[in-house]
Amino acid sequence: MTAPLLSMRGIVKSFPGVQALRGVDLDLHAGEVLALLGENGAGKSTLMKVLGGAHLPDAGSLLLDGRTTAFRSPQEARAAGIAVIHQEFNLVPGLTATENIFLGQEASRAGFVPRADERRKAAELFRRLGAELDLDAPCSRLTTAQQQLVEIARALARDARVIVMDEPTAALTSREVDRLFEIVRDLRSRGIAVVWISHRLDEIFALADRVVVLRDGRNVGARPIAGLGRTELIELMVGRELADEYPRRTAAPGLPRLVVKGLSRGRAVRDVSFTVRAGEILALAGLVGAGRTETLRLLFGADCRDSGEIVLDGRRLDIRSPRDAIAAGMGLLTEDRKLQGLVLGQSIRENFSLPNLAALSRLGMVDGRREREAFGRHVDRLRMKVPDQEQRARNLSGGNQQKVVLAKWLERDCEVLFFDEPTRGIDVGARHEIYLLMNDLAARGKAIVMVSSELPEVLGMADRILVMHDGRITGEIDNGPHVTQEQVMRLAMA
Questions:
Q1: pLDDT tens by residue, 11-69
Q2: Pair type for strands 464-469 and 281-285
Q3: The domain 256-329+414-492 belongs to what CATH superfamily?
Q4: Which 3 state secondary structure label does DSSP give 356?
Q5: Fewer CB in a 10 Å sphere around the end CB: N or C, the chain?
Q6: Do residues 420 and 454 touch, judged by C-beta distance below 8 A?
Q7: In this structure, are residues 204 and 198 in contact, taking their beta carbons and an 8 Å threshold?
Q8: Tens-digit pLDDT profile for residues 260-280
Q9: Does CATH place domain 6-238 in 3.40.50.300?
Q10: What are the φ and ψ backbone dihedral angles of 256, each rounded to 5 degrees?
């Protein structure tokens, strides 16, 4: 094999109370797709921030084309051909695609920016990517997939030799994912190196040439993807054997608990009716825009329904707000934990307490000792990796953020739990822990409604599957060993 385009040697990085990287080595070759894997908090993002110039390492070296270098800022990294596309895109919403692509590197003439030249170059970049979009539309009006294309075009405009993509498919449809794969393969054929960070193992086996696995801030393995098995890769990531990726249980659902009749809201949700029994995990499946999340939001009172009846344990509920739903014994693990599930600027202790203030208070004042003890029990139970309870929610990994959201609903001992994309952006080890928790809640007689865009997860966890299309339920499947993804997709596209 040829010499690496880029090498990182002995990278060390610490933050107050956290040793993020412990002497990490990484090689990256021109024209390869390298999958960077590991559990949440393993050090992947920190390592890429060192590569991208956002963090200075405490120790270690970086070699580009065999020459030792150091990036003291993102600008220096970009000038050297390193582009990092974060999960949250770094675009100015009010500017057009063309303006975002050339922002910061405008070639002015006599004090004027030649917009026509920039527009022509932008059109050529998108032609190379095999994509078409409105170059004059503000980026706020572009889809997630189109915004991602703008980020890639911007990297190409700066002659990037290394492109890092962090969870690039998290918010894309299956068709958009396929198109992104085509683009990445084309970049690889041109000699551009791509670092692909994802928790979706199917993507890794479909796209990557090699994998590097981090665990607890260390490089624990670099392997070619050829000949690497899924079980071996999972065990390398979590450092232990997982008996079953989707831990199954013997389901014995009891009496009906949640009964929904004729739930409707415009064209988003149309005459949806179903029943969830005690101890049952019911999955809502379907394509993006089918109405799954909208259904959960209506049940939880986050949106107002036009019509419909909600009955819990034989009692008809008048749910007009999330406060009503919480009081009735419901909890919602939201699709977007950062925007809807957490107050990122507050501590994780304060986030945990928000729906539990009455139970944690005495004489109208929060009992700090009771609050800390209650949260501490869930920190241990959910195996959260947190330095202390005062840690700001925004500073946690995705998996630990999800566990904080789970903890606040577990403390309320909700009877009905809505899990909307419960493992999105979460590593395989944390996923397994959430699956075990869901099984434990079902075994205690809770009623669980799960929304997931990952069909293997739906088939691995649900007792029954309701498939939605265009706001309606188009079919029901009793899950079992012979149910296939193709059966679900046929109903989802009805």
A1: 999 987 778 999 999 999 999 999 999 877 788 989 999 999 999 999 999 999 999 99
A2: parallel
A3: P-loop containing nucleotide triphosphate hydrolases (3.40.50.300)
A4: helix
A5: N
A6: no
A7: yes
A8: 999 999 999 999 999 999 999
A9: yes
A10: -60, 135
